Amino acid sequence: MSETLTEPPPAGDDEYVFFHSGTTPTYRKITKTPGSFTTIPTIDISALNSPSPSLAARKDIAAQIHAACTVSGFFYLSNHGLPASLQASTFAAMTRFFALPHATKMTAHVQKNPAIRGFEPMFETRLDPRTQGDTKEAFTMGDCPLEPEQNYVSKTGAQPPSNITRPQNIWPEGEAWFRDAMYAYYAAVTPLAAKLIQIFALAFELPETAFDGLFKFPIWGMRALHYPPLPPTTTKGEEAAAVSLGAHSDFSWLTMVLQDEVSALEVLNKDGVWVDAPPVPGTFVCNVGQYLERQTAGRFVATVHRVRNKTGAERYSLPFFLTPDPGARLEVLECCVGEGEERGEAVDVGELYIRRVLPARPKHPTSIKYRDVPENYLKAQEPDLVKPIKFLNATAI
Ligand SMILES: O=C(O)CCC(=O)C(=O)O
Ligand SMILES: [Fe+2]
Predict the structure, then answer these.
(1) Which residues form a coiled coil (predicted)?
(2) CB-side exposure of 182: number of CA atoms within 13 Å?
(3) pTM of the entire structure?
């Protein structure tokens, strides 16, 4: 068992890692004798690319996913069928976007968008309070019933909700190619995610379609990330502050990250040791988010991770964060509740999302607007107060 503290640790020889999981900052002692996972498994899903994969093949993949999510909460997904040319063109578009003049990127500044989407310059977020901010810039987009690329009507059989009157995403002015590139990737990654949702149901020996009803028009976020190299450090303090993206667990159900060839992602094992998740060409790095952890009563772990780009090279990555429908209620799976254990409460997916996303962006106008509204009032007034931002999504932190 590793030792965890919620206050800064006393000075001494012991080394602690700091992370922010949920709402509580935590310090976990680094043990010198790891007994937890030290590598991240690779799961080959080539069988799923055939028109009708056998049940045995599907069950085999589901069993591997079950094992990975239980032990490390992380796995690489190989032979997933996303064309290499699409991956390359997506990275090329991201590189081109981040190389645009600052003023052009700022036409899509996150502060201009009520749903907290858009461009976030360097140091705008700060997941670890000991740092000057996260050394990364990002562009986030997400679910929007009004953007035609997302086919709301054909997916749901309904018209967009009447309270959504404006597109939820914001795009840089005069750079239509970027929107096209992001949506080309979205169009390829979403069918893959739909396949995985069924495999996850199978992992619990449920009918493969058991979770489909939770993902009719889900909350999702896609976040293009650019991490410039961190400057070299000389002191212990500088080293602790050298973080590209502070330690966190994802506020999603499942995250699928496409990373380039620059190694910087690290995953915290149960002994408090950081395990590298280096790029494996042609794979996604997938990880369990807090919703799935909750749904499985903690059987699947939303593992803490961080990014430190110490390579000297520019790094780009593209997480796809998937969360169930904003109107869904997420129950704890019965099969995950042991004898004598209490079944945790079901949660309203969208409501929890809003309560978590707003504090994560305290300087954003939308967060400021709702900051002083007491939670019970927010709940009681739900149609009026919550509806305008019901479909927001920002980040999975
Ligand atoms: O850049 C990466 O590899 C991971 C990014 C991440 O963890 C996040 O955005 O939540
Ligand atoms: Fe993450």
Answers:
(1) none
(2) 31
(3) 0.89
Distance from chain centroid for Cα 236: 29
pLDDT tens sequence across 314-351: 999 999 999 999 889 999 999 999 888 888 889 999 88
Q: Which domain holds residue 112?
A: 34-380
State pLDDT tens for residues 29-54.
776 667 789 999 999 999 999 889 99
The answer to whether residues 110 and 120 touch, using CB atoms and an 8 Å cutoff, is: yes
Taken in order 82, 169, 384, 165, the sign of the CA dihedral is negative
Check if 245 has its Cβ closer than 6 Å to any atom of ligand 1.
yes
Tell me the CATH number at 192: 2.60.120.330
Domain annotation covers residue 24: no
338 occurs within a structural domain: yes
The answer to whether the CB of 223 is under 6 A from ligand 1 is yes
Q: How many angstroms separate the alpha carbon of residue 6 from the centre of ligand 2?
A: 21
Ligand that lies nearest to the alpha carbon of residue 222, given by its number in the listed order: 1
The total number of structural domains in the chain stands at 1
